[in-house]
Amino acid sequence: MSSNNGLADKNYLGQSYSLHSSDLSHSGSLVNKLSADAQLWLQYSNLSRSSSTNAAPLNSAEGSNSAASIQSGSSQFSSNSNARLIAATAQTPVQVNVDWGTVQGTTSQLHFGLNAFRGFNPQDATNPAYNSNLAYMNPGIIRYHNAGMMNDSAINPDGLIDVANRRWDTTKITQALSASLGAFTNQPLRLINIPDWPAWMDANRDGFLDTNQFDNYAAFCAELVKIVNRDNQFGVTHWEVTNEKDGQYFTQFRNNSGWGPLKDPSKPDRLDELSTIYNKCATAMHQMDPTIKIGGPALSRPDLQPFYSRFINATTQNLDFFSFHAYASGSRDTPDTNVYDGTRSIGRYTKSIVDTLNQASPNRHIPVFLDEYNISWTWQTRDARMAGNKGTVFDALAMVEAINNGADATLAWNEKDEIYGKTDSRNALRPSAHMFHLFNQLLVGNRVATTSSDNQSVVAFAVSNPTSAQHSYLLINRSNQVQQVQTTFQGWTPTGSALARYEVSANGYSQKTTDWATVSSNSFQLPDNSVTLLSFAY
Fold first, then answer.
1. Residue spans in the chain of domains classed CATH 2.60.40.1180
2. How far separated are the first and last CA of the chain, in Å rounded?
3. DSSP character at residue 115
4. How far apart are CA 40 and CA 488, in angstroms?
5. Which residues pair with residue 167 across a beta bridge?
6. Cβ distance 477 to 82 under 8 Å?
7. What pLDDT, on a 0 to 100 scale, did the predictor assign at position 469?
8. What pLDDT score does 85 carry?
């Protein structure tokens, strides 16, 4: 997802595109199982969010994106907190059970990654505040993605191509990556996305790579690997070929939003071409650096099994990881509950993709990367929830669903911009930035079994780390009400009284102490639309 003015969108042939319930009647398909609310989440468009110099800049007169208005928007329910607190005392507490003795998997810092939308822009890549913020959030993986990188570096601040000489701008690339490498004590895994091909490789501007340019594009991608890893020894381990091409090469040719037959039998879809492009690029890039991992296709429609099944089968031997994207809404009026329910669809899609990969490659694990997610698939909504506590709730729910269903990495969109960013355009930390900082410190280890008596209100997640003897317990209140929670631990009981309580709510980010007696009682309260992390350091 990218554009040139810190704004991003997902477009389908220039128009909004939706899947309707009438399109979701395919017998035996995953989509057939979705609720009406989840179907709303499937309102996806299909082409990559292309760069646009005409994208409207944020207008302070509109108010919705100023720091003050975002703070106000994220706190819109705080004025009713007293009434909700009174109401909460009459509630039946949500019963949460954590079984520390039942390990269901592991988590790593790869599960709490970020997209570096501004990572190749020299104004940001060399800015100490920008790099300090990235280091604070401490993601285990960074994805460099900005569709503007395919533009002319001489006229576009995000451009990385020396168009006059038809080559990469080596100086600009080197400068940006050098600054990023210097920002971290513990280096994250780095992934570079090559979202598109240069304009001269699409002579008729139809959006497709010209067939006589397949080998040239593969060589162009391999040249970037050479600049980064052989010439400069930056050690970028993961590379992703293309971004959200499923609409262009597949969906637009088919009925029923990509699930049906060809619209015109004489005009087949071009997925086989996209698979060939990927295979040629992977081969050329591996020849340049045999140590790297190459994946894709940065799928925009994770529901679209007819696409990804064929792509996986055609690229299995060259596929080192599979990537997809997920967004919940195209309207800032979508109710919070529907937005949060979209994360359950993320879980279902993750599992379906994992199952498909296991079937295609039973003897070699192919990791699954959810390498873009956020609430809105279009910057035009200017959805203030993404900048506040509700965006933090969505992020936490998305991570939990993806992890529980087999994702090897998740990467939020994005690290910095005025609408989506975990930091704003002035490098101020937003609530989600603190969540990434905490998760990358405290939620790495063994994922243990949890249950909640009311998952529609409170979602639980817990991790133990045998090395540090750390036990971390996450509670996500996805409701618009204060929730009382009563917790029961099995397999381990805290031996101390005080514990750290970190929280993001409508009141912002806070850090305080509480005690196990309070947490295990029936009077432990979670603010509405909040993320609470309890850390037991013993």
1. 91-103+448-536
2. 42
3. E
4. 35
5. 162
6. no
7. 84
8. 52
CB 472 within 8 A of CB 440: no
Determine phi and psi for 505, rounding to 5 degrees. -145, -170
CA angle 107, 111, 116 (to 5 degrees): 155
- Are the C-beta atoms of 141 and 113 separated by less than 8 Å? yes
CB atoms within 10 A of CB 214: 18
Q: Cβ neighbours of residue 230 under 8 Å, at least 6 residues apart?
A: 288, 289
> What pTM was estimated for this model as a whole?
0.85
30 vs 474, residue with greater confidence = 474
Question: What is the identity of the amino acid at 168?
Answer: W
- 333 burial (CB, 10 Å; 0-12 / 13-18 / 19+) is exposed
Could you give phi then psi for residue 289, rounded to 5 degrees?
-150, 100
Residue pointed to by tokens 């990804």 = 308
Q: Provide the pLDDT confidence category of residue 176 given band limits of 50, 70 and 90.
A: confident
> Do residues 49 and 376 make contact, with C-beta atoms less than 8 angstroms apart?
no
The SS3 assignment for 64 reads: coil
Residue written as tokens 């007696």? 517
CATH 2.60.40.1180 fits 91-103+448-536, yes or no: yes
**Which token pair is 128?**
């100490």
Amino acid at 156: N
CATH number for the domain formed by residue range(s) 21-62+108-444: 3.20.20.80
Helix (H, G, I), strand (E, B) or coil at 145: coil
Predicted confidence (pLDDT) at residue 21 exceeds the cutoff of 60: no
> Can you tell me the mean pLDDT for 515-534?
94
163/205 Cα distance (integer angstroms): 16
Phi, psi for residue 522 in degrees, rounded to 5: -95, 15
